[in-house]
Design brief:
The protein is an alpha+beta fold and 164 residues long. The protein has one domain (10-163): Alpha-D-Glucose-1,6-Bisphosphate, Chain A, domain 4 (2-Layer Sandwich), CATH 3.30.530.20. 29% of the residues lie in helices and 40% in strands. The chain has helices at residues 17-25, 27-33, 132-163; strands spanning 7-13, 39-45, 52-59, 62-74, 78-87, 105-115, 118-127. A 7-stranded antiparallel beta sheet has the order 1-7-6-5-4-3-2. The longest helix has 32 residues, at 132-163.
Length: 164
């Protein structure tokens, strides 16, 4: 069995923790920075243990659906969720259409560390119940995840400036 790998991204934002938390948890702000390069439509966002975040990313006529099920919510310190990387339009898990060996579910943990006028965000993603091929695919593509999250975080910086 392949050893499980972990994707980690840390970033300090020049905004207080409550403001950064709000940008992560207010669907009216979240859709603006999550999924950069796509139109992000949040169909449901219930921020509570067992609650769901149902997300659609659109590129023209094409859509990709994702589901999140919250496992832990400790406002404004921490969120833990199961991230279903690809679902059908009814939110049923399915293989990722562009990456068939991608793990179907990632355990995602995001923490928000108060640093006064700044906030350190620590994001971690770990494949859950993944096959060796899925873990290998995740490990191979982890470096590219920085680009996607980084692009979103660049937009998040602008959103934080707007709501300050």
């Amino acid at each position: 069995m392949t050893k499980t790998v972990e994707y980690v991204l840390e970033r300090v934002f020049k905004a207080p923790r409550e403001m950064v938390w709000r940008a992560w948890t207010d669907p009216n702000l979240l859709h603006r920075w999550y999924g950069p390069g796509a139109e992000t439509i949040i169909h449901k966002f219930d921020l509570e243990v067992g609650g769901e975040w149902l997300n659609e990313m659109k590129w023209g006529e094409n859509s990709m659906f994702q589901k999140v099920v919250f496992q832990e919510v400790d406002a404004p310190r921490k969120m833990v969720w199961h991230h279903y990387a690809s679902t059908d339009e009814n939110w049923n898990s399915r293989p990722h259409p562009m990456m068939p060996d991608w793990p179907p579910v990632l355990l995602t943990t995001v923490t928000f560390e108060d640093r006064g006028a700044e906030t350190r965000v620590h994001l971690s993603q770990i494949p859950m119940d993944a096959t060796d091929a899925q873990i290998a695919s995740f490990a191979e593509k982890m470096s590219g995840m920085d680009k996607g999250w980084g692009s979103g975080y660049t937009i998040l910086d602008k959103v934080l400036l707007e709501i300050a």
